[in-house]
């Protein structure tokens, strides 16, 4: 059995995204960037993820680049997954090393079905201004990652832009302070299905919060999404996706408990919640 999960705002949270904390709650830093801790989990969530990893194959799935993924030290010190999917499905890491064959497969698929990145950039430059676009990055030679001022987005222009690039085989997703422009062929779901076949797994539970996770969740046998996410805003009810009751950082605890419960059910056992810390 595989548990394939998005990271940011699904399993791990920045201070801005974690939401209200319970009294006396102590979060655990799990990512260091420029000598500052920028991502966190609750102690309970780390304990639950450790249980998950001991029970099944845990595969982190993220739009982060390899370098950004490698900053998350909880995956080196505490939870050590054998596989990870980064760059929105563009890279598969096997024991920390990139699978070159998969990278070549993705590059060929993107070239066949999506317009060149330079064409998308030309359309983007027509609507982007310094007033609301702070930084632009072409990540891993695969997709655009753009830091924005969200409340200054020219929404009609962005909606028109989204429609234009969709015709060119590209998708747009807004996550917090970032916009991602991603070739449609660059898919978390495709990478996960590749690993499912490679590992000979019969069942996948997936979790994710954004539209970039939609392919991952739809390709899985069971799907869970945090209530606070982009997916919930677009699909308040979904025939395939179960939403958590809790938003914010506690959604990670809830969805991990659901994963353990479903794993126990499939194995004919009863999952017993255990309080405690790692």
From TrEMBL:
The species this protein was found in: Paenibacillus baimaensis
The protein's name: Hydrolase
Family matches, as SUPFAM superfamilies: HAD-like (SSF56784)
Entry keywords, A to Z: Hydrolase
Record field: transmembrane: none
Molecular-function annotations in GO: hydrolase activity
């Amino acid at each position: 059995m595989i548990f394939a999960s998005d990271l940011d705002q699904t399993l791990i949270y920045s201070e801005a995204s974690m939401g209200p904390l319970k009294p006396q709650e102590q979060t655990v830093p799990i990512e260091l960037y420029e000598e500052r801790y920028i991502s966190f989990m609750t102690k309970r969530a780390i304990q639950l993820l450790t249980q998950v990893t001991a029970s099944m194959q845990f595969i982190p799935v993220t739009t982060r680049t390899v370098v950004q993924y490698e900053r998350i030290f909880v995956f080196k010190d505490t939870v050590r997954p054998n596989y990870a999917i980064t760059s929105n499905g563009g890279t598969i890491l096997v024991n920390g090393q990139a699978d070159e064959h998969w990278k070549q497969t993705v590059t060929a698929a993107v070239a066949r079905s999506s317009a060149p990145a330079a064409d998308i950039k030309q359309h983007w430059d027509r609507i982007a201004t310094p007033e609301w676009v702070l930084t632009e990055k072409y990540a891993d030679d695969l997709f655009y990652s753009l830091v924005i001022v969200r409340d200054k987005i020219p929404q009609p222009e962005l909606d028109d832009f989204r429609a234009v690039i969709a015709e060119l085989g590209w998708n747009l997703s807004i996550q917090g302070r970032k916009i991602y422009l991603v070739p449609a062929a660059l898919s978390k779901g495709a990478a996960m299905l590749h690993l499912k076949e490679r590992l000979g797994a019969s069942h996948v539970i997936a979790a994710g919060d954004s539209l970039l996770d939609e392919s991952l969740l739809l390709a899985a046998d069971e799907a869970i999404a945090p209530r606070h996410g982009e997916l919930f805003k677009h699909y308040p009810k979904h025939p395939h996706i179960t939403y958590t009751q809790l938003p914010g950082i506690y959604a990670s605890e809830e969805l991990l408990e659901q994963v353990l419960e479903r794993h126990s059910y499939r194995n004919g056992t009863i999952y017993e919640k255990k309080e405690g810390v790692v």
